[in-house]
Design brief:
This is Putative Flp pilus-assembly TadG-like N-terminal domain-containing protein. The protein is α/β, with parallel strands linked by helices. It is built from 12 helices and 12 strands. Helix 2 packs antiparallel against helix 3, helix 6 packs antiparallel against helix 7 (269-276) and helix 6 packs parallel to helix 12 (420-434). The longest helix is centred in the first third of the chain and has 60 residues, at 19-78. The chain is elongated, with a radius of gyration of 43 Å. The N and C termini lie far apart (123 Å).
Length: 439
Amino acid sequence: MPDLLTPSPQRAGAGRRPRGQGLLARLAQARGGQVALTFALLAMPILFAAGAAVDYGRRNAAKAQLDAAIDAAVLGIIARKTNTITADMLDSARAQFMADAAKVPGVTVTSFVPVPIPGVSQVGLNATYTATVRTTLGNLMKVPTMGISGQSGSLRNVAQYIDFYLLLDNSPSMGLAATAADISNMKRVAGGCAFACHLLNSNGTENTNDNYNIAKRNNVKLRIQVLRDAVANLVDSAKSSMSLIQQFRMEMWTFSDIQTRLIQLTNNLDQVRTASGQIDLAYSYQDQRDNQTAFERAIAKMTATIPASGTGVTPLDPIRFLFFVTDGVQDTPIDGKMSNQSAGFKINGNRFISAINPDTCQAMKNKNIKIGVIYTQYLPLYDNDFYNAYVKPFENKIGPLLSDCATDGLYFSVTTNGDINQAMQQLFTAALSSVRITN
């Protein structure tokens, strides 16, 4: 009889799976739930990472727009034609920034702080902002907003207020024909004379048969005409180059042995341009007196007329310039005594001829007035005994002495065939460059 308590080999194996197969079966039954759980656990950070990427993208786009807005607000102030930044201007910058920021979706500005940069020589503005931008999926993680901040700054040199005083030689020698070709034509139509003398009849009426009118009828251009055109162009350049409202003012004088103010100091440059049309050649005297170029009278008058030069930062404290245009030889009434009689020749009791004495300009320089000089070169007349006796001995000193009168860098010489207009433009450019403030 078999032992019922001891299983037989066949009974022991009946109905049982191998150990490895059972483990695989149980794993197969559990796989669906575990994978789902694992996927769920991995999906959440992936989802939040994707949401964060979207939110950071929105934040960066909003910041770019706000940075552009603050740049525009700052530059809008710096570009204004003024040397001062007022509280109203700061309010305007704030209003402009807030208006631009309101166009950015989901953004709330929390601060905008514009601060002028202190300084005398420069105009500057710094501004900062802070803001928030709403999130999307970040809100599920209790991060409803993301912060943004930015800043912008701009700085420029102050533009300076300048008064220009023009002192223009209109003595008879400025009736010289303007170029070699004009000189040749003038001699041809005026019996060998290169100068367009401007005369009055004995009754005070215009002498229409003088060389001045002969030149006009024959289209001979004179130095005085070129000077007139150059002044008109100077005014145009001043108008177009202003970076402040009413930045430049001008006053204009002509001189021979007498001095005439064509227009008083004004910021209405259109009026100055109109007045430049009055620049004309002085009349020669019937008694043939030639002492009609009085430097010392003219410079002394301008020294008394022009106030001391200022800083140029405000309209009440402008920098002041004298633009002095001349052919460089004074032939003047003596007026008691000359400052340097050894430099020239006393022709008779009331006539003195010489180059300029630079000391004449020193009193003006002592007032910090800058002097710009355009030398329209004196025409040598070697076939003239008077010229050879009284001008030729100092002809090589005319230009250097005028240069000594001028402020450094503000002297320009124009030859017979040269361009007075170009020299005037160069002087104006050099004048502006010479007064730029630097720290």
